[in-house]
Amino acid sequence: MSDTATRSTGRVLIAADKFKGSLTAVQVAAHVAVGLHKGAPGVRVTSVPVADGGDGTVDAAVAGGFERRTVRVTGPLGEPVEAAYALRGGTAVVEMAEASGLQHLPSGVFAPLTATTYGTGELLKAALDAGARSIVLGVGGSATNDGGSGMLSALGARLLDADGAPVPPGGGPLAALATADLSGLDPRLAETEVVLASDVDNPLLGPKGAAAVYGPQKGASAADVAALDAALGHYVAVLAEAAGPAAASAAEAPGAGAAGGIGYGALVGLGASFRAGIDVMLDVLGFAEALDGVDLVITGEGSLDEQTLHGKAPVGVAQAARARGIDVVAVCGRLALSPSALGAAGIRRAYPLSALEPDPALSIPNAGPLLERVAQSLAEDFLT
């Protein structure tokens, strides 16, 4: 059957990530559903909005039946911000971007040396206070490069300079770290399963580390990157003195460099295990059960490109669906993958908004109506 051939189907599952800058995952699903019903009025549509651990993860969990809880925490610049986590039973989904993300910085303002993850620690504490004993810590979209030091401080760790005073917030001041005491970490962490959910597997240090790869995205100059990498290296050495050689080897572990090194702090201080964010979220959202009786899955995100192939939501969705023998197609804002690359990822065909409106300045604000139009075309191709 060719990609343009039509087929009949009983039920479609929409499992798309957000279109960053224009539509949330929930909105994407709603617009796709409208277009599908225009193209194939009798089709039965369900949706499981998905996320890969980055911004939008809490929204996806809430759409999947979790309760949104909002608390006031410390933002990346030290100011109070409103942040949400999601809770269902004893399981919490905590999104570090809610507390320590770039969205909390004023436009054009960056603080690569001083931004803190303290608020993420406060968010984790709130989840523990609410009874969570299984926590998914989704990381991505961070404004920080502090190795998770702020998060650990908020949870009871003592990170002190040579005078016995707490080191100031941020990754830069870790150069002055003299001693670390993790004995005061919240004792509830010892009985809590923490999963570090990320779409990147970088180590903490070096040319593929947190500072070198992601620091420039957060406003770090070349000099800042060098200073941060050195400070984080010193941080690792001090934590290894306090917690043993496992703290040194953790710096090389996959995911240690995620979100400015908060992955490292989670691995060392929270006893977290690392998993690909989309795999964790598909489990949490009950994706396997949602696939029962489904004939076609529609996934997608704002840009289908090379990054998509490395742990992003559409590929995780496609792999899970194809393992069940279910066809997968995608919608996106822009498409930068060849048909062969899509096929290798398990996606039969992609429908980009750019095919209807190539100008992003027009496409982004009109993403909803455009998405309905491409979904109608998709329905006419695959569902009638």
UniProtKB/TrEMBL annotation:
Classification via Gene3D superfamilies: Glycerate kinase, domain 1, Glycerate kinase, domain 2
Chain coiled-coil ranges: none
Protein name as annotated: Glycerate kinase
Protein keywords: Kinase, Transferase
Entry similarity comment: Belongs to the glycerate kinase type-1 family.
GO MF annotation, one: glycerate kinase activity
Stored Pfam families: Gly_kinase (PF02595)
Top-level taxonomic group: Bacteria
Protein source organism: Actinacidiphila alni
GO biological process terms held by the UniProt record: organic acid phosphorylation
The keyword Kinase is annotated on this UniProt entry: yes
Keyword Transferase in annotation: yes
SUPFAM superfamilies linked to this entry: Glycerate kinase I (SSF110738)
